[in-house]
Amino acid sequence: MLIAVWIVLILHNLIVQMFAVKHIPYSEFVKALVAGRIVEVAITQDRIQGKMKVIDNGQERETAFTTVRVDSDLSQLLERHNVTFKGVIESNFFRNLASWVFPVLLFVGIWYFLMRRFAAQQGSFLTLGRKKAKVYMEDEVGVTFDDAAGVDEAKEELVEVIEFLKSPEKFTRLGGKLPKGILLVGPPGTGKTLLARAVAGESGVPFFSMSGSEFVELFVGMGAARVRDLFAQAKTKAPCIIFVDELDALGKARGIGITGGHDEREQTLNQLLVEMDGFDPTIGVILMAATNRPEILDSALLRPGRFDRHILVDRPDKKGRAEILRVHAKGITMDKDADMDTIAGMTPGFVGADLANLVNEAALLAVRHNKNKVGMVEFQEAVERLIAGLEKKNRLINEREREIVAYHEVGHALVALSLPGTDPVRKISIVPRGVAALGYTLQVPTEDRFLMARSELLNKIAVALGGRAAEEIKFQDVSTGAHNDLSRATDIARSMVKEYGMSAELGHIYFEKDRQKRFPDMGLTSTKDYSEQTSQIIDREIKAILDSQYDVAREILTMRRTVLDKGAALVLKEENIEGDRLKSLLEADQKA
Ligand code: ADP
Ligand code: MG
Ligand code: ZN
Q: Could you tell me if the CB of 149 is within 6 A of ligand 1?
């Protein structure tokens, strides 16, 4: 730095010399002035510059001069005594130097300091964006499947991935193929991140993780560079896992909305797609991602060969919650009266993160109560506090709603169990699932069906309406919870009338679906190819089917009212029951 300053100063002097401005004493200037040799002057505060005539080798020519101004009275005196005098400017060279060298030095120092810190986080300045993908080796991950409880179904699906990562050659030798991308889908706090880490921990491979939001906060072009780098690094460490947390932050559908053009995010997303297509899964790199909003993801991400395997990480049921509580209670001294099953019963709707929080809160309360063990009192207080908070955030449903959902779901299941030719009921649950559904009844077909009889379709409609019928029987009121069922029932009925020719009044006829739907931008021209009168008959027929099937459902449920009540009580207590348990209740009732 100092050397540079010197060089600048030397250059400056050289330039001044080149232009050959003559420095003359003030007295000489005065003499020249008196002699009439000064041509022109410019006077500044402490200098006089100008041109003067000089005799050089007998020839007269003009030359530039400069002199330092001197107090005029003094100069007259000096002149009278014929003294050669001149002005001298105190040299403030070093002061000048200091006045700007020190700020520069300070600036350089701060810059250096910041860069060092930045580099410590980021690698070095020049490889910015590379080191952000930290390498977690197994001992750093330190998470196993035992740490994630109550998510058995997701774990089962991940076992295969672990097997593959442990010995990829075994799989590839047999020509087996694994999905490139696994997407963990589920509500926040259910343990998606935890599970991804557990997969790395269980298989003992390096774990590269990055959060979707990290990709997009950076400068333009950086996100894409990071993705490239992440994959490049991972390939050298295979077998390993690349985990993109909060994929939705990065993978939102491209170009939606007017302001939707977030170029940086799009670039990054495109780079991710390119990398995914370009890598060969047989080398043993598994790409995992997590999201709680799969519905907003760009469809390109979900295409085959990309994130084509989806694993649901659901909210835990009562049994699952007890298991999660036990995992988190491990490191804490519990009183004998603190029973995890009871606590699990008090916390419907809680996810893993809430339960971890609950245990922590209870432990803190015990400390505040000056106890050396965490007991039921603390847990009760902690539950109350957390429930208040979660309700405010709208994440819990209340008791009354749970009861409605329980009757609704048992209604579906009972109708399904009572009608022939319906798919067997596997599971009845009031653990909220996904975004909209508050509960669900899982019916799994025993075989693939390509043809359906009229009676089977009618039964399906009755099952779909069973939920609402049960609500009406129990509460003499219906809720909005059934709108999905209604749309499904209506769709089936409409297809029966318009496509399958199953209406007695209209007969065997096929009405083409409204074209408007297929070509949404062709304008609002009416494309119905049937008359207004026919259209009314169609509507009437659809309504007739729905009404009669609603009656069927209501009749069944009225007849099995005791089973409905018992089943609902059971579901309320356990949140999740096997279809078979309701079936045996029903069979007992049928015998009686
Ligand atoms: P997500 O990624 O689904 O939002 P996380 O994996 O970040 O949830 O979970 C946050 C924390 O909550 C975890 O670190 C863990 O302490 C706790 N947790 C969540 N789910 C579970 C679970 N199934 N079993 C045990 N602990 C859990
Ligand atoms: Mg997470
Ligand atoms: Zn329903």
A: yes
The verdict on whether 409 is a catalytic residue reads yes
Domains of the chain: total:
4
Name the strand (E) or helix (H) holding 443.
strand 440-443
Q: What is the pLDDT of residues 122-146, one digit of tens each?
A: 444 444 444 455 555 545 678 899 9
Ligand 2 geometric centre to CA of 192 (Å): 6
CATH of the domain at 159: 3.40.50.300
157 located within any domain:
yes
Report which ligand 1 atom has the smallest distance to the Cα of 354: 12
- Give the contacts of 204 (CB within 8 A, at least 6 positions apart): 138, 166
> Do 446 and 552 have their domain in common?
yes
Q: pLDDT tens digit string along 160-197?
A: 888 888 887 777 777 766 777 899 999 899 999 999 99
Final residue belonging to a domain, choices 251, 280, 312: 312
Lowest average pLDDT, out of 171-180, 332-341, 469-478, goes to 171-180
pLDDT for 431 equals 82
Residue nearest (by alpha carbon) to ligand 1 atom 15: 353
Range picked from 115-129, 159-173, 309-323 for highest mean pLDDT: 309-323
Helical residues (DSSP H) of 369-398, grouped into ranges: 376-392
Cα–Cα separations (whole angstroms), residue 101 to 107, 116, 257, 288? 10, 22, 53, 53
Please indicate whether residue 357, judged by its CB atom, sits closer than 6 Å to ligand 1: no
Could you count the other beta carbons within 10 Å of the beta carbon of residue 409? Answer: 30
Whole-angstrom distance, CA of residue 493 vs CA of residue 465: 12
Whether 238 is in a domain gets the answer yes
| Residues 8 and 28 reside in one and the same domain | yes
Mutate to test the pocket of ligand 1, among 194, 245, 315, 325 (most ligand atoms within 8 A of CB): 194
**Measured in angstroms, how far is the CA atom of residue 491 from the centroid of ligand 3?**
15
Ligand 1 atom having least distance to the Cα of 327: 25
Between 268 and 415, name the one with better pLDDT. 415
- Choice among 409, 471, 472, 541 that is catalytic: 409
